[in-house]
Amino acid sequence: MISQLTGHIIHAQGNTIILEVNGVGYDIELPNRCYTVLTQQASRTVTIMTHLSIREDAHLLFGFSDQPTRDAFKRLIKASGIGPKAALAILSQLTVDALIQCIETKDISQLTAIKGIGPKVAQRLMVELKGSFSGISAPILNQHVVQPAPTHALMQANAVLMKLGYRASQITPVLKQLSQSDESSTCSSEMLVKQALQHLSSEGVQ
Fold first, then answer.
1. Suppose 32 and one of 27, 92, 116, 171 were both cysteines; which one would form an S-S bond, judging by CB atoms 3.0 to 4.6 Å apart?
2. Close Cβ partners of 125 (under 8 Å, ≥ 6 residues apart)
């Protein structure tokens, strides 16, 4: 089982990256949040937590910027009717803390707002996963993934922009640029969203 990889990102598109490790390229699919965090460090050596899904027709590798997100992914795919793609969609829209809160408070609305998650699936998640997230703490970035801007602010800004209908390919370069500005270390998610919308508007992105 491949549980962790350290290397350089040599290609990134959509929500998939190719991570080169000792001359071998690994094709890894990530949640939008993790994709945004990791691709901002494309010039650095990064460590990615991974989960290998083995099917009859393919071996699929999924990646995460921190262990708590991977742990949440593993719990999600144990639920009835939730495959890796659905789990990625959920973790693309919700932070680990937000997901746990949804499950524990039975807040179905945030789950049904995610594409592919209907009321029946959301209700089943509430029942099957309640109390199963004990031991999962809020994500803490490892030493190889250091962000100029606060990671939680970037993740929250990414989620808001996704809900507004923007694609990861549009969001990632803008947030990367904003995270490298002098003021980024003190930016809130609201400020990042506002600045990102200004950038996207100036570039004619609707």
1. 92
2. 76, 79, 82, 103, 111
Between CA 41 and CA 148 the distance in angstroms is: 10
Q: What is the pLDDT of residues 145-194, one digit of tens each?
A: 334 455 667 777 888 888 888 887 888 888 877 776 655 556 777 888 88
How far is the CA of 86 from the CAs of 19, 116, 120, 173, in angstroms?
A: 23, 7, 14, 25
Size of the chain in residues = 206
Q: What's the CA gap between 152 and 189, in Å, rounded?
A: 8
**Tokens 């693309």, residue located:** 92
Residues 6+ apart with CB under 8 A from 60: 29, 52, 53, 54, 84
Distances (CA, A) of 178 to 20, 44, 95, 171, 199: 26, 18, 21, 11, 9
Please give the Cα distance from 162 to 171 (Å, whole number): 8
Q: Is pTM, for the whole model, over 0.70? A: no
